Amino acid sequence: MSAMMTVSMTINGTETEPVEVPEDLMLLEFLQEYLNLTGTRYGCGQGVCRACAVIHDGPRGARVVPACVTGVAWADGRAFRTVEGHAEHDADGNVTAVTPVQQAFLDHFSFQCSYCTPGFVAAAQALVERLEVDPVPAEDVEGVVLEALNENICRCTGYVRYLEATRDVILATPGLTSGDGRAEGS
Q1: Could you tell me the CA-to-CA distances from 140 to 34, 130, 132, 145 in Å, in that order?
Q2: Any signal peptide, and if so, which residues (predicted)?
């Protein structure tokens, strides 16, 4: 039996109560088994396929981490967003508005089985937030999108639709690209 430790973290904007967990527990297990947040998927279990990707909101901004190989010891005291935390919800927990990334994925019919979708949503959202701070020239968007989503594996091979949806969100959102006359202060 592994040693126990007490952890607390902020998930989707809400700080969890301190919870005693095995110190070798992975973040994915904590989300699913202790918080009942089952939207984040277990894929390869090695951090390679990124079905388990969640956003870590750190001092350097949003970045994607694979929850299946991220230990709760590291996650303790940190802030994360799961796929459940992207859309807006009413007081009863019903979705009232999806993010532009989620809407673009719907508009492009990006997913088939949807198993990998939470990871793609996290990667695309983190990219959008990075570009809000550090825009890129419009002609570089396709390469930036490919680089940002490159680690995500889709078993249904829906890559093109995910890439097109993410590209379209970035090109349609003022301030995410430079050199379009909208990026600096407009």
Answers
A1: 41, 14, 15, 9
A2: none
CATH of the domain spanning 90-176, picked from 1.10.3720.10, 3.20.20.190, 1.10.150.120, 3.20.20.30: 1.10.150.120
Say what the pLDDT of residue 186 is.
42
Class at the top of the CATH hierarchy for domain 4-85: alpha beta
Provide the percentage of residues in the chain whose pLDDT is more than 70: 96
Alpha-carbon span 169 to 183, nearest angstrom: 15
Contact 35, 16 (CB under 8 A): yes
Pairing type for strands 95-97 and 61-66 reads unpaired
The C-alpha atoms of residue 178 and residue 139 are separated, in whole angstroms, by 10
The phi, psi pair for 105, rounded to 5°, reads -60, -40
2-26: per-residue pLDDT in tens?
899 999 999 999 999 999 999 999 9
